[in-house]
Every structure is written in C-alpha cells, then in structure tokens.
C-alpha cells in the first residue's frame, strides 16, 4: 500500500510531467538568435528582391536581373557575416572586460567565471548563421525569376513570391517568439512592399538611355 507521502510525490511528479514544455520556456532567451536569423532572412529577401525590381524597372533582360540579384546575394551575405562577427566580438570583449573588473573586486569566483566564459556568444557561429540566413532569403526571388522570360510576368512573380515569403517569415518569427502573428506578418509585408516600391520607382525615375541599352 502506498503511503501518503508516496501518493503526494506521485501526484506532484505527474503534474510536472503534464505541464507543457513551452509554458516553462523563457522566450526572451530566444530573442538574440531569433532576431539575427529573422533579420538576415528578411534582409536577404527584401534587398535582393528590391535590387531585381530596380533593374527590372529599366531593363527587360532576365540575365541582367539575375546577375544583379546574385551580386546582391554575395555582397549582402558577406556584409552580414562581417557585421555580425564584429558586433558579436565587440559584445564579447565588453563582457570579458566587465567580468575581469568583477574578478579583481572579488565579486566573481573562478568556477562562476569559467561557466560564464562558456556562455559567451560565438562570433564565428553568429557570422555564419547570419550569412546563411541572408542567403536563404535572397535565393527566394532569384529562384522565382530564374525561369520566367516575359518581363512583366517576371516582375509580378517576384513581387508575389517575395510577399508570400515575407508573410511566412513573419509568422515563423511570431510563432517562435510567442508574439502576435497577424501584427508581425503585416509589419514585414508592408516593409517589404515599401522597399521594393521605392527602389523600383526611384530607379525608373532616374533611369537613363545608357542604362536601358546595357
């Protein structure tokens, strides 16, 4: 026969096991890497789609559009990687300097310092992740336009695919961070439309005969 103590322990154990894991998560801990991933993917998508829309405003050639898009992918991925590496390395240097000052004051033990050192962000991993996220986003408009020769249809497809992907990115980011999905989707969608529209409009406005005859 189970004792009252055993019954109580079994009940508590079952209660713990029945608690959804997500309810115990601190979603703010996801903020840093989620921000970097979503920023990279959205930046890659919007930047390359806008570049392609810009060149499409003054030139019908599909090769020119794809070349500009690919150049934007490579340049953007490198820029994101270098920027993230420098940014995270700066953060690491600041945290190490602070912990060194705390150690000199006797506020930080050796074991605690070793543990905190292991928890520092990795600049190289952050750079690789940022470049990868940018490249994934940038590939979407490139692949959408790669096999469509009619110029106007190509532009419409780029806009449509980019818009759909922006909504998906917004929904994923909101779901993983447990924030309002509709608001997140609308925010990234309107931002993407603005970027593509401004790039297309200004390029069309300033386009010259020399650009058209490239």
Automatic annotation (TrEMBL):
Q: Where are the transmembrane segments?
A: 33-52, 64-82, 126-148, 155-175
Kindly list the GO CC terms recorded for this protein. Answer: vacuolar membrane
GO annotation terms (biological process): intracellular manganese ion homeostasis
Q: Which UniProt keywords apply?
A: Ion transport, Iron, Iron transport, Membrane, Transmembrane, Transmembrane helix, Transport, Vacuole
Instruction: Provide the protein's localization.
Output: Vacuole membrane
Q: Which GO MF terms does the UniProt record name?
A: iron ion sequestering activity; iron ion transmembrane transporter activity; manganese ion transmembrane transporter activity
One protein family per Pfam: VIT1
Membrane topology annotation: Multi-pass membrane protein
Database matches in InterPro entries: Ccc1_fam (IPR008217)
* Domain of life of the organism encoding this protein: Eukaryota
Provide the reaction this enzyme catalyses: Fe(2+)(in) = Fe(2+)(out)
Similarity-based family: Belongs to the CCC1 family.
Function, as annotated, reads: Vacuolar Fe(2+) uptake transporter.
Instruction: Return the protein name.
Output: Vacuolar iron transporter
